[in-house]
């Protein structure tokens, strides 16, 4: 049976109707991993298949603690760390018959937008292996784009799901902060981190979200709001009010801009209304986000002292050290008010700005990234490379909003271009509906088929 | 000659005896457990583990704050306090910085009012065990809820401090929120001490709150685990600092330890090495906001406090103040005492006991340990009745009286025989009355029982 490119839900159906066994599906993916992973370096750890007639395969970012399976967060500090407990996200997946295919590569501690800060080498973009797949969930994006897994779990602090999804031409859903439990996700920016799926179809993203979302007694910041049946509720009928902010199109690569604008026209033709809105310029979110995130990082990394587990601090890479230094500074006595506290005030302004906007519209449409995938090695030249790559996603992350990246075409180098839909808090259903309608209308311009030609069975 | 007035403030840590730890589901009772068996990903600070606050611990801190007459902050939050130490698994302690649960209170001890600055909630650390040349870490205690009580610098001498601490320990035990057991380390004390130079007679009578300027240095003595040692440490510091001030020098601002054997303090850390804890709001725990209704339901749980109980014992029960004080130091003892009084009240009329001040008499028995309070209240009362038994019983008269009473109260006898065992007390009462108290009530009970079976 030809499995290449089938969505998770299609595979699930085949297994459930006994047209194929779960074991065959796993063997299929393990074979593909064997064939392509050395080239792409998407997986850091490949898991053993445990025989279970209805298991479904999933790839998990190496930032999630998986009981008995090595979890490194992309850092040699945790080179030999085998968690004695399961993260809530993976626990919920296991409970729903998922079995981890493997743990995916990432920027060490999620610090980056290219996977180049990984201590285990960079992952490569399946579209052009001389280029970065983005990050920090770059491994997850690469294995989904190249179909070394039907779906993957990533996590986003600001951009770490949306940006690699955009650069590899897949769907990346960043849920509202608090919608999905962070318990067992190795913390980067605690007030920002949001786990979410990377998939080839919108329905798959909806399905994964309804499994992993919901209040968790082990995460005080998870929110006690009912979880909808996102997949079942996907609608082709609902029409939405979309907002476009010019600030999000300034300084953007012409081809990216063109493809996004073209997609907005398609949405308009489909019956959605589009209006101009004015948002705080995204450039302000760079410094704001940098201070908040670095402050939290400097605190979150202090537990890695090598006493109870892991290697000593000397194993930290230079990016982590830089972030710890900056965060320590911004929290220090006498600087706290000028940096951290001020940044929190700006954050409040950003939240208020979005609150105002979402009174009138359902979603904001914008490019996900200013440019398409860059060459590996190029990011090192920019000290704040990640922050600049993530300029278009930071404000919404700071506000804790939900957002989704969808593919809207290729540039002249045959590199995917991503468009993001940003929704109000806990309005994931609307994002999924809009993305679903776009998918039915355009089939994302056949992007998946194009890439999989490069990665035959 | 110059006179110096001590200025002393206190920081007190009290471990709460909640079922589970402050931020995880491990038991808060770590005492005597095998090292590192009472732990989980959260209190070990494993990657990805998150804290979820213990509701009971929050409520008990509110309770203590209210009992110390503090203002309870309706909006409160946790903060991270950073420092590196092997017994601190996360590299920061979850504590409270600028919005603690309770602020600005006052605690009255033996007629003196002492100002409380704040009461906040945090987590305990693990424990270092030095073994030969090695240091081992035990995380069983890591994450146990810890309340910190901070006073204003309002104490002038070691005795005031000792009285305050004893009062506080009694209060905490009344609220039943901690064992406050010094030996187990569930109550830890840190006095800070400095001296003000007094130049005139006038300023001597002034206190800090009346505007006397605080000295420009402060010496903190860390982690003392007995009231006796606190007293010794304070007295030693007063002496030491006086010597320095006499030489026209200023004592160093520093943190000192206390050597229990030599009864001296020693320098640990000076101001130059002061830590920057880099406090910032704990992003893993949302801000707590309390509704009035919720707070009211907690306030309702405050029992009659030692001070009030003592006043009642003096006013209503006519006890000597010193005895009322002693009895009310232990809530269980005070309650036992009151149970004895009330039990006796129901029997007193029948037994016709007489005493100048029965309440005081019973208090004496308890305080002087004439009758053990380990007995059930009923047993205690029985023993007590013996105390009233005269020695010169007319045995013949007693026997005759008992028979007469039994015959005259056929219905009561039937009641007793049909199982109403309490009915016997009526007969005993009648006998005792007829004997004008000149009989051993216990003996009377025994004889009647024998006759009725």
What this model shows, in words?
The complex is a heterodimer of chains A (457) and B (453). Chain A is of the alpha/beta class. Chain A has one domain (8-454): Amidase signature (AS) enzymes, CATH 3.90.1300. Chain A is built from 14 helices and eleven strands. Chain A has helices at residues 8-16, 22-40, 88-95, 138-145, 162-168, 202-212, 254-269, 283-300, 318-331, 337-357, 385-389, 391-398, 428-442, 447-454; strands spanning 43-46, 56-61, 98-104, 151-156, 171-174, 194-199, 241-245, 273-277, 363-367, 402-410, 416-423. In chain A, strands 1-3-2-4-6-5-10-11-9-7-8 form an eleven-stranded mixed β-sheet, sandwiched between helices. Chain A starts with 7 loop residues before the first helix and ends with a helix. Chain B has 453 residues and is α+β, with helices and mostly antiparallel strands. Chain B has two domains: 3-299, no CATH class; 306-452, no CATH class. Helix content of chain B is 37%, strand content 21%. In chain B, strands 2-6-7-10-1-11-12-13-14 form a nine-stranded mixed β-sheet. Chain B has a three-stranded antiparallel β-sheet with strand order 5-4-15, with no helix packed on it. In chain B, strands 3-16 form a two-stranded antiparallel ribbon. In chain B, helix 2 (158-174) runs antiparallel to helix 4 and helix 7 crosses helix 9. Chain B is elongated and about 90 Å long. Chain B starts with a strand and ends with a helix. The model of chain B has no long low-confidence stretch (mean pLDDT 89). Classes of the chains: A alpha/beta (457), B alpha+beta (453). Chain A binds chain B through residues 63-65, 71, 73, 78, 81, 83-85, 87, 182-187, 189-191, 217-221, 295-296, 298-299, 301-305, 307-309, 328, 331-333, 336, 340, and chain B through 40-41, 44-53, 80, 82, 84, 86, 89-92, 137, 139, 276, 278-280, 283-286.
